[in-house]
Amino acid sequence: MPAVLAMLATLLLVAVPARAADWQSVSSPDGRLQIQFGIEEGRAWYRAAFKGRPILDKSLLGFRFKEQAPLLDGLAIDKVARISADSEWQQPWGEVRLVHDRYRGLRAELRETGGAQRHFAIEFRVYDDGFGFRYELPRDGGMDRFVIMDEATEFAFAQNYRAWWIPAYRDNYSEYEYARSALSALSVVQTPLTLEGDGVAMAVHEAALVDYASMNLRTAKDNGKTLKADLSPWSNGDRVRGRAGLKTPWRVVMVADDAARLAESTIILNLNEPSRIADTRWIRPEKYIGIFWAMHIGRLSWNSGPELGATTERTKSYIDWAAANGIPAVLVEGWNVGWDVPEWWKNGRSRFRQAEANPDFDMPAIAAYAKAKGVSLIGHHETGGQVRDYLGQMEQAFDYYDRHGVRAIKLGYVGTRLDETEWPDGQYAVESFQKVVEAAARHRIAIFPHEPVKDTGLRRTWPNLMSREGARGQEYNGGSPDTGNSPDHTSILPFTRLLSGPLDYTPGVFAFDYRARRPINRVPSTLAHQLALYLILYSPVQMAVDLPENYEGKPAFQFIRDVPTDWETSRVIAGAIGDYVAIARRDRHGPDWYLGAITNGEARTLRLPLAFLDRGRRYRAEIYADGPGADWRSNPEAVVIRAQEVTAETVLDVALAPGGGQAIRFRPL
Amino acid sequence: MPAVLAMLATLLLVAVPARAADWQSVSSPDGRLQIQFGIEEGRAWYRAAFKGRPILDKSLLGFRFKEQAPLLDGLAIDKVARISADSEWQQPWGEVRLVHDRYRGLRAELRETGGAQRHFAIEFRVYDDGFGFRYELPRDGGMDRFVIMDEATEFAFAQNYRAWWIPAYRDNYSEYEYARSALSALSVVQTPLTLEGDGVAMAVHEAALVDYASMNLRTAKDNGKTLKADLSPWSNGDRVRGRAGLKTPWRVVMVADDAARLAESTIILNLNEPSRIADTRWIRPEKYIGIFWAMHIGRLSWNSGPELGATTERTKSYIDWAAANGIPAVLVEGWNVGWDVPEWWKNGRSRFRQAEANPDFDMPAIAAYAKAKGVSLIGHHETGGQVRDYLGQMEQAFDYYDRHGVRAIKLGYVGTRLDETEWPDGQYAVESFQKVVEAAARHRIAIFPHEPVKDTGLRRTWPNLMSREGARGQEYNGGSPDTGNSPDHTSILPFTRLLSGPLDYTPGVFAFDYRARRPINRVPSTLAHQLALYLILYSPVQMAVDLPENYEGKPAFQFIRDVPTDWETSRVIAGAIGDYVAIARRDRHGPDWYLGAITNGEARTLRLPLAFLDRGRRYRAEIYADGPGADWRSNPEAVVIRAQEVTAETVLDVALAPGGGQAIRFRPL
């Protein structure tokens, strides 16, 4: 096998025409990325090269089923259609307004030469920033219904690249820190899986996961560089239960020259379907505060009793504070019945009554008060992973919020198995989650789930699916559980988790004094780092997570007031995975640019050219920087605010403390 | 639990005297490292601080047994003895000649207040470069024989440090690349486990593992920062089968200001017993070539037939070449009967006849020829993991080598389970391996096992146990298996695997032309990087791994001729784990210094002060550097050799290509 792979890897470079008969080739519009698809010895394969060097050697395609024969051997090509597209579409909200959708591709119709003579298809789309392919399963040969037991799809990487990964088959999706290792050290991991080295940066992920199981990646035993699809199973071992003509999600390999370009990729969005929501004006990118952090740091509780956070009085005071401080929305957690531990659920029935407020929470009065103050409420549904129960309450619960003018909901799926039996990323999770997204859309309600199914770009089709957690968020720094995130974490996320979509990380910690109560918790960040996160960790909904009183009298809060949550365009200016990252974004509704830069635990100075600014224009840069002696370990709150004039020619020296950051607003003069 | 831990972590800093009653404290000789041991609520705990900051919070000590009650609760202190030592001892060979053994410690004698009223002891030794502790299990209370089912020992780290690790419970020990992640991302890992951050570098390992199971480390479920001991089990689930008064191996936490200092630690050696071999003159540090690499790159075979490597003619030609090129020894693999695949063993009997040469290999003639040429032979035993079988052949096999003047053996344990049932790092592996070490010593034979039990410093007690592989060695770059190591790998090993002891990595690849035969194999290294490895990856036996003909006419081979394998002293001059490392060593038998520096896939220039050189002395530096355009991916063989005069005041700019390195010999003028 090694020898064969090797030979083909070489041929890919020199001998493509000679094998055109059984190998079809398609290149990206810019010609740098080349995919080949072919049949050899009755099996379907693909391989890929970038800048003339192999990145994927011969990689298998196919399926094994529960009842039917495998769709793997004795295959032949019926016909191959060439496709290409070049268009531009607009996001209702996003990190960029206009997305360029340009690719070349091929659609291969295949048939079995023996057995049931089934017909199926594989479509490849090759973009400048990566490629995707998906299967269209047979409608013939007794495939009206089938159970996929194994998707044979391989990713046979050409080098032992450096990999950034999270193990699969743990608890809630992705609520772990990333590990970095050689590709050969993986066992089974989640996607996105990010790879770099040998002059290329890549990520393996999927797009448009709506009625299938999540794809994990498992190292093939005999070769540390070959990964294969590993679909999260149902509790009985089935991988996917499908019907005739099923189209799989797109299997995507994002490809770029370096990590910074990788983080700008739009291929995942492009491989999703256009919006199914005609009028999206009710979907509002916005900042919010909330009754939330006080629970995580142990001051208040979700439970009823004296420490209950969600009281009418407190909620009104949060609404007052939001109105007075230019924050358009307030989130309330723990307002409804069912939070009292230990019993969130019993006999498969959740205790959560999603349309019933606790006695201390006067929803009608609060809703009226918010409306009068011009502040919107963000609702909260915690399902405790009791999906069946939640689907039963959902319509009524959305009606309830509808009646009270609540247009957005934070949605929780805390728990290691759905309905105590199913993986939170298997087909059951994917399909039931999709029901929630579509029901919410019918009710004109936006959702941002925590503990979600991983993001695969569905926000294009369902723009009410605004953001997700699905990561170790800020809450881990607050004491839930009690291990804070590492100083590397926020410098890894833009190149890994964020490749899949927006992240509701909840930045904005200003006061670290909760450590008096939870001394072993640490936010491994300075205050300026927290400000920079509004640029670094993209989300259309951004929380100012700290307690309102902790923002009082803090001039640095001005940045949180100023920073937009919707963007005309975005540029990753600098980045080294796990070390540092700098991102500039332009306000979608004005001429101002914003820049955020962060480092990990190491202090460093970044030299950043401001070439993104309009040429010949002068700007006033309002700079929020780490103050003298700032250090996440000992002096996280030291911040200095200063202004200077800059142009597109300016190269800015951005000095970052250990765990530090810098946030800048550029206003044209 | 978090709150309690936190409170104690604080007390550790301020309130020690107030709790002297139940907490005994002991500090390192330099006072920077402080350990506390105590009993609270009847349980035994320890904690540690470095430079006044907690590094380990309250960590549990104790055991659970199969028959007897746990040794965990209802404990009280009988008496505490203070101990301290300050001595110096000499290694027969090593990276440093003299080792300073200086510590302060305490030995606590404990008893159960209830139950069987058993008595046992825990001893702590605190060095400037870390601390160790071990248990002495009861002789009373029906503990004449017992089975340990769980060692409760915890390591409750105070921060979510960055960790470098290899998963436990895979195949052969440590033959994986290291992963880097936050401590909170681990599941169960091997030791050494290296940690860094918050101004400290640490490693958890063990010393003097002779009659116990290897200690792995598992993350405690409820707290990502707390690890506990996880002993590799017997196939029936027993962890350790012990007798009254058993002393466990030392549990060691190496502690230093940074990774470079960590890599200089001698605590593992100091916690082993003095040499049991009186006259060690027959144990020779040396360089060797061998009939080995040609098999890995697919030119020759271990099997009989036309491609057999170990023939009389070829071995004599290797002996000639060694004699002519100043290499004192020649290794031969595949010389004996039993190599023919597929069947290395059958019905638990190995096919390997360790004292029977294959028909093409005339041992008496070869031995006489080697003797006449003044070249020593290095023998080879491959057990295929058939330990019982090997122990049965061992005496006869050592006699055979003895008769033919073979004083050193490379020892292989290829296979995922010993005797197809037991973990290669469980008590069975440890104890059977110890039998081999001691038998070899009786026969005055040195061994360097590959696929070994992990190194825990036993070379101090048994200096014939010279080196081990127990890592992804160079062989992985040659095609076995076909995934090469990553460019980061050699910059990680000095701070991880090498903390446990010498590594027989087999450096010295000069010709990369084998890629014509195995194109997907890569040595992720330049030629100068290969030279530097003789300094970076310490071993008293160092192979020049490439084919002799590939060294012909290569001026750079002079460095391999020159570089010693035995050192007066060693200094880690610079290092960042996974990025770069530079190490200087002084010849044990002369005034010359040598320096090796390597980088990972990134090009960089290191500024290295030569302060290690004798003050006021002038040296001629013979520099082997990456040549113009050197790059591991495209131009690995470009090397330039130049000389310059330097002194201890010189600061050298060491430019390293991608995957590059530099090797320097300093001769006094």
From TrEMBL, chains A, B:
Domain annotation Glycosyl-hydrolase 97 N-terminal: ranges: 26-274
Gene3D superfamilies noted in UniProt: 2.70.98.10, Aldolase class I
Alphabetically ordered keywords of this record: Signal
The UniProt record lists the keyword Signal: yes
Chain residue ranges for the region called Disordered: 470-489
Superkingdom field: Bacteria
Segments forming domain Glycosyl-hydrolase 97 C-terminal oligomerisation: 566-666
Domain Glycosyl-hydrolase 97 catalytic: 292-471
InterPro entries: Aldolase_TIM, GH, GH-type_carb-bd, GH97_C, GH97_catalytic, GH97_N, Glycosyl_hydrolase_97
GO MF annotation list: carbohydrate binding
Signal sequence segment: 1-20
Keyword Hydrolase: no
Pfam families assigned: GH97_C (PF14509), GH97_N (PF14508), Glyco_hydro_97 (PF10566)
Composition-biased stretches (Polar residues): 480-489
Protein name according to UniProt: Alpha-glucosidase
Species, as recorded: Sphingomonas oleivorans
